[in-house]
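Notes, p. 3: input format for complexes.
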Amino acid sequence: MTDNRPRRTFAVISHPDAGKSTLTEALALHARVLTEAGAVHGKGNRRATVSDWMAMEKSRGISITSAALQFDYRDHVVNLVDTPGHSDFSEDTYRVLSAVDSAVMLVDAGKGLEPQTLKLFRVCALRGIPVITVINKWDRPGLSPLGLMDEIEQQIKLRPTPLTWPVGEAGDFRGVLDRRSGEFVKYTRTAGGATRAPERRMSAAEVEDVDAAAWSAASDEHELLTLDDADHDQERFLAGETTPVMFASALQNFGVAQLLDLLLELAPGPSATAGVDGTVRSVDDDFSAFVFKVQSGMNSSHRDRMAYARVVSGTFERGMVVTHASTGRPFATKYAQALFGRETTSVETAAPGDIIGFVNAQALRVGDTVYDGPPIDYPPVPSFAPEHFMAVSARDIGRYKQFRRGIEQLDQEGVVQVLRSELRGDQAPVLAAVGPLQFEVVEERMTNEFTSPIRLTRLDYQLARRTDAEGAQQLSGLRGVEVLQRTDGTYMALFTDKWRAKNVARELPDVRLDELPAGG
Ligand code: GDP
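Output follows (520 residues plus guanosine-5'-diphosphate):
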């Protein structure tokens, strides 16, 4: 049976330790978890991860894979797409943002905006993904709320439009003023935060009696915000000009139901999507989906390969045979259900916004489209500006064949970008990554899956710019610069630091040097 309930598909963007795992669990507690698609974290002694596929993932207690968690909330289905969240960053963290319709930016009240949050925010901005901001850990001493609003406006150029405003400063949290209804939502500390915190609402008159000073301070600031044009405006939010803000304590379960309500009320659902040739597929057309993540080697006893796809249009039915756009070949989806959890019974259908996983999907690559009905091919998932570079070679030259095959496979999966140059030769290409963790994945898989242990040598480059053949010539021989070619033909100029890149741009103004924030 087709499940036609509206979808909300979002990701949480945050810096490590802001509380993403805590919030995820709190959301799951409030909603009813339907399926766990290989998802969430296994930090400390918290609930173990569903996909503990790699020994490395287990030993480090982090989630390397990204998948989705699906909840039932009110009359909606909510898909939370997991962004791998460790101080080590990877391209997957960025790529999942191509599969969501909105993002929740989780900010630690004591720390404000942090580097990883900013990086992820930039990807959202480039893709036009509306962002809801949650200021977390308000139960602890932190920055002033107006100061935080300033910081958001200065650093990400979005106008913050708070929907709730804290009553009591950070660390002395009494509750929030609901700026749209004018009510007070009382904060109740719960033991360990493990239960669903009751949300008590009361009118302004009732609060006056209890918390006069804190309430009147919050009311004053609320009025200031209104005068400053900081009220929510749905159109401006969807246009990426403003970000609704709310204050929460994920640990204490405060604000969690409010966030779910906001997602339902304000965040956009799936919408019509254009293919590379401009053809537009509306959500109720025939089935189509695109792959945003491919993962292999989950089970060392047999080679498997999982491709995660986001449904763009139509209804997915288990077992249907679809067309793989890049080869034109049929693709059978009979194993599609296996993704959904360990003991969960198979999921028979999926709707636009849902994430499905195909097992044994040898043919599928990141960015590929699969469809039913008339042809459609969605634009490729962009690759992102790498910041870490390593030269790689086979430890045992006798295993060069395995080495080459492995590197080619990891390149195709998008685990790392592979860069080559005549100078370095084919036996020692350069691997480029957004985060250093990607190299560990390469090392592990080259050893265990492709049976060719590798040697990695760190290169002293910090950033890459896109250039062209002519630029490559002009740059060759300059100190602190090296030009290599990505497998897709793009010329990449690697620089030891940004000052050198700036200097070269100044001295050779004719050389093409594009920044690669995203979409490179
Ligand atoms: P992640 O790295 O973003 O997934 O962060 P975690 O969810 O693991 O949280 C990091 C730490 O902050 C943990 O010790 C949490 O218990 C704590 N934490 C998360 N949310 C809150 C909150 O709302 N209030 C307080 N006081 N601590 C929190």
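The pocket of guanosine-5'-diphosphate is lined by residues 14, 16-22, 43, 85, 136-137, 139-140, 249-251 (CB under 6 Å).
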